[in-house]
Amino acid sequence: MIKNSKNMMLDRVDKSLLRALQLDGRLSNVQLAKKISLSPPATHSRLKRLEKDGYIRQYAAVVDRDKAGYDLLCFIHISLQMHKVEQVEKFREATRRMPEVLECHHITGEHDYLLKVVLKNRKDLERFVVDKITPIPGVARIQTSLVLTEVKATMALPLE
Fold this sequence. Notes:
Shape: elongated
Number of helices: 5
Strand content: 15-25%
CATH architecture of the largest domain: 2-Layer Sandwich
CATH class of the largest domain: Alpha Beta
Distance between the termini: 8 Å
């Protein structure tokens, strides 16, 4: 069983429900109930509880980035000059406002942050690095890696 911060236990049925929704978030309550072998009212009740308790943060469509015109997927490592609270917060706030940044992670190791960024092309990458990242106060080093082939991309957690 999985416990959350409120010590609520996820049982086998909860995990089945979450696995099914991770594969297809558009399942109707009746379809979901059939998949997890539960009645529709019981399924609905569990689903509402999982939403209320924060297990399900949101529902969204996964848009194909290539078809949407975003040919370039990059990972950008950022190192900050100093780790003063105000400098760190300015960097974090700046990245939160950038729609190109899909993910921003504070990491250990040689760099301080890892950004997952989607862009249309190399010119777009140059504009992003020069006009958006470089001017952020405290940015000391930028290292960009371009994705050649996306081997696996999923948002589904391995719920056991």
